[in-house]
Write a structure and sequence with these properties.
Layout: H1 8-29, H2 37-41, H3 43-64, H4 68-94, H5 100-114, H6 117-133
């Protein structure tokens, strides 16, 4: 049986995502050093920038893997979840505070979009499908 290795670009993207996740984790959730006040004031903006950066890195890496279905899954999942968060944020900003159930669902979604778990899952799926084709 042939073994299959993931491309080098995949691992580069993985380490970039690990770095981005680690920074967010150690700055907002479990601060190990005191952070300036402006960082805590713009916490949501920084999280959105981080989610967007992870999304773009994933697009750039998956595009080099030359699998259109993988890019489609990556885009759909990220755009749908980011759209949900965006609609919820706009509702809360312009209309009224969010109900507790919806507000509580935002944190795990943000964690999912920032963490490299979905990226790793797609990489494993790519490796299995690629191995079966060979």
């Amino acid at each position: 049986m042939k073994t299959f290795r993931l491309p080098r670009n995949y691992w580069l993207g993985f380490w970039i995502m690990i770095g981005a996740y680690t920074v967010i984790r150690f700055v907002f959730y479990e601060p190990i050093l005191p952070v300036p006040r402006w960082i805590t004031q713009y916490r949501q903006v920084i999280r959105w920038m981080n989610m967007t950066a992870v999304f773009v890195v994933g697009i750039l890496v998956i595009r080099t893997m030359q699998e259109r279905w993988l890019l489609l899954v990556w885009n759909w999942v990220h755009l749908l979840l980011m759209g949900y968060l965006g609609v919820a944020a706009l509702y809360e900003y312009f209309i009224a505070p969010m109900p507790y159930g919806i507000r509580g669902s935002a944190a795990p979604i943000i964690e999912f979009l920032i963490a490299p778990v979905f990226y790793m899952g797609l990489g494993l799926l790519y490796a299995v499908v690629k191995r079966e084709r060979q």
